[in-house]
Automatic annotation (TrEMBL):
Its main location: mitochondrion. GO terms for cellular component: mitochondrion. This is NADPH:adrenodoxin oxidoreductase, mitochondrial. NADP(+) binds at residues 159-162, 203-204, 215, 380. Pfam families: Pyr_redox_2. GO terms for biological process: cholesterol metabolic process.
């Protein structure tokens, strides 16, 4: 590792970043640009970089993954080093990183899962969207999931973009999926899938739906599927549209058009010929997932019927006392990701599930910063993450410039951490190792007519 001959080399400010998703890379990018004298080391739990860009973003959204090109430029910058296969909080503590670096930026995302808190959520046939997405995207820890897709109806709880990604993957014609970087086991399971109907359930109404127009449009246009909405859910929505703010207005208009308008001849024909159905079910919350008494697998879900109190974004769902049972063999809960604490020495707000911070400065912890989903909670797209990561980098640079962050004493940086890791039997994967994995995946993909065939286990990744 660099600078072996010059212990405690020079007085360059040394910063380390925990996590190599968009937050880690955008923080690094801004730091390197604003302070060309800085050394930035990125530590990542997995042997491969890019976080949810690799393991979250849907396989049929290749254009979203173009950010990887920018991240790669950052990783290859002379001031930047990548150390994969290092779990901070286990292989090395945050305190040890703080000893070795002038500043530590925590950008390890939101790897936990919000649970529904209803009876039956542990039944066979119930999955979190996080695990389901991880399964089709090749996240090593989710490869055992092998979801049972032998039922006809699937219920997805939640109506955000992740819910729509899952619905789209469940319903997409296999000819579309096989040209993406979806994993081979997922492709095979989906080719055999019996799922024909996907209900996407939300607590509130059409005006509160959490997806964006791009994802809705993709559902509307998904080949071989037709929408099936409940007209009564849209009562009053038409009148409310004109007062909605712009992005919400366009989204609602598209929903209204899909649900209420009589389609033209061509579209009608397309819908008539479709073999699969998707539908939004509004004003419903899960109460219980019900088991088949014979095999103890998911057989249905009991939903509470809600009504709204108030209007617009702030409207609250309140129970009416009515319930509705829906038969289904698959339930996927997509009600949000959640950050987890990784080290007891780091302040953590358990109720908000974030590291408490102001402008990315971790409260009451000098030299400690945070960015990305860990800083804001798990909302927003990559562009949102980019902006909040640039903000954190700005705070850090400001603190270096103003002297609030003491960078006068030399720090050992990766030199001392590498020593610790070696003692602990941890072998970091550097960026050129990842590039070897990358080229293996690309050539395997080429052979299969896909952009990439991902390696699915950590052992396999480390073997290249
Ligand atoms: P992450 O991307 O989660 O990165 C965190 C990194 O930290 C990971 O690499 C993780 O392995 C690593 N890590 C975790 N724990 C440790 C540890 N203890 N030590 C070291 N490293 C650790 N946005 C879009 O713009 N377009 C989309 O199409 C889109 N699709 C999405 C689909 C899904 C299913 C999800 C969940 C999100 C999607 N997003 C999309 C949002 C986007 O992925 C996020 O905005 C972004 O990834 C958040 O970045 P992050 O760096 O905070 O977290």
């Amino acid at each position: 590792i660099s600078n072996v001959s010059t212990p405690f080399s020079s007085c360059r400010p040394k910063v380390c970043i925990v996590g190599s998703g968009p937050a880690g890379f955008y923080t690094a990018q801004h730091l390197i640009k604003a302070r060309p004298d800085v050394d930035v080391d990125i530590y990542e739990r997995l042997p491969v970089p890019f976080g949810l860009v690799r393991f979250g973003v849907a396989p049929d959204h290749p254009e979203v993954k173009n950010v990887i090109n920018t991240f790669t430029q950052t990783a290859k910058h002379t001031c930047c080093s990548f150390y994969g296969n290092v779990t901070v909080g286990k292989d090395v503590s945050v305190g040890e990183l703080q000893q070795a670096y002038h500043a530590v930026v925590l950008s390890y995302g939101a790897e936990g899962n919000r649970s529904m808190g209803v009876p039956g959520e542990d039944l066979a046939g119930v999955y979190s969207a996080k695990d389901f997405v991880g399964w089709y995207n090749g996240l090593p820890s989710c490869q055992e999931l092998s979801p049972d897709l032998s039922c006809e109806t699937a219920v997805i709880l939640g109506q955000g973009n992740v819910a729509l990604d899952v619905a789209r993957i469940l319903l997409s014609p296999i000819d579309i999926l096989k040209k993406t970087d979806i994993t081979q086991p997922a492709l095979e399971a989906l080719a055999e899938s019996h799922v024909r109907r996907v209900l996407i359930v939300g607590r509130r109404g059409p005006v509160q739906i959490a997806c964006t127009i791009k994802e809705l449009r993709e559902m509307v246009n998904l080949p071989d599927t037709r929408p099936e909405m409940v007209a009564a859910d849209f009562e009053g929505v038409k009148d409310a549209v004109k007062d909605l703010p712009r992005p919400r207005k366009r989204l609602t208009e598209l929903m209204l058009k899909t649900a209420m308008e009589i389609p033209g001849e061509k579209e009608q024909e397309r819908r008539n010929n479709a073999s699969r159905v998707w539908s939004f079910r509004f004003f419903r919350s899960p109460i219980e997932i019900m088991a088949d008494p014979d095999n103890k697998r998911t057989a249905g879900i009991r939903l509470a019927v809600n009504k709204l109190e108030g209007s617009g974004d702030g409207a609250r769902a309140v129970l009416t006392g009515e319930v509705e049972d829906v038969s289904c063999g698959l339930v996927i809960s997509s009600i949000g990701y959640k950050s987890l604490p990784i080290d007891p020495s780091v302040p953590f707000d358990s109720s908000k599930a974030i590291v408490p911070n102001s402008m990315g400065r971790v409260q009451q912890a000098a030299g400690l910063y945070c960015s990305g989903w860990l800083k804001t909670g798990p909302t927003g797209v990559i562009a949102t993450t980019m902006n909040n990561s640039f903000d954190t980098a700005r705070s850090l640079v400001e603190d270096m410039d103003s002297g609030t962050l003491d960078i006068s004493a030399a720090k050992p940086g990766s030199q001392s951490i590498s020593g610790l890791l070696e003692k602990r039997g941890v072998k970091p994967v550097i960026f050129s190792d990842w590039e070897k994995i990358d080229s293996v995946e690309m050539s395997r993909g080429e052979a299969a007519g896909k952009p990439r065939e991902k390696l699915l286990t950590v052992e396999e990744m480390l073997g290249h």
